[in-house]
């Protein structure tokens, strides 16, 4: 019986998030499941100057710095 087919891990680069990622990956390996890592950016409208509630997809993808994406990929690969 498979208990964990997909594990969602919120990630913020903290030590708690590192620990949660390691546990999620271990559970997924044991259950032959997968892990989805979510990096949320709070208060995005304040950062990019768009009124709250108005988030065109092109603005969101442009707002996520490439450096953060590379950093997240590196953390997941190391875990």
Give a written overview of the molecule.
There is one protein chain. Helices cover 53% and strands 13% of the residues. It has 79 residues and is an alpha+beta fold. It has a two-stranded parallel sheet. β1 (6-10), α1 (15-31) and β2 form a beta-alpha-beta unit. The protein is globular. The model has no long low-confidence stretch (mean pLDDT 78).
At a glance:
This protein has 79 residues and is α+β, with helices and mostly antiparallel strands.
Any key phrases for this structure?
79 residues; alpha+beta; 4 helices; globular
Mean pLDDT equals 78
Task: Give, in order, the helices and strands.
Answer: EHEHHH
Question: Strand portion, in percent?
Answer: 5-15%
Major sheet attributes: 2 strands, parallel
Radius of gyration: 15 Å
Residue share in helices?
A: 40-55%
Strand order of the largest sheet: 1-2
Number-wise, the strands total 2
Distance between the termini: 25 Å
Number of helical elements: 4
Specify the overall morphology. globular
User: Structural class per helix/strand content?
Assistant: alpha+beta
Unreliable stretches covering 5 or more consecutive residues: none
Question: What does the secondary structure layout of this molecule look like, with pairings?
Answer:
Elements: E1 6-10, H1 15-31, E2 34-38, H2 44-48, H3 57-63, H4 66-78
Parallel strand pairs: 1-2
């Amino acid at each position: 019986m498979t208990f964990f087919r997909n594990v969602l891990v919120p990630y913020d680069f903290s030590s708690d998030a590192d620990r949660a990622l390691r546990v999620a990956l271990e559970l997924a390996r044991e259950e032959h499941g997968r892990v989805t890592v979510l990096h949320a950016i709070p208060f995005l409208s304040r950062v990019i100057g768009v009124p709250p509630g108005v988030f065109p997809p092109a603005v969101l993808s442009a707002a996520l710095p490439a450096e953060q994406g590379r950093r997240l990929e590196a953390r997941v690969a190391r875990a």
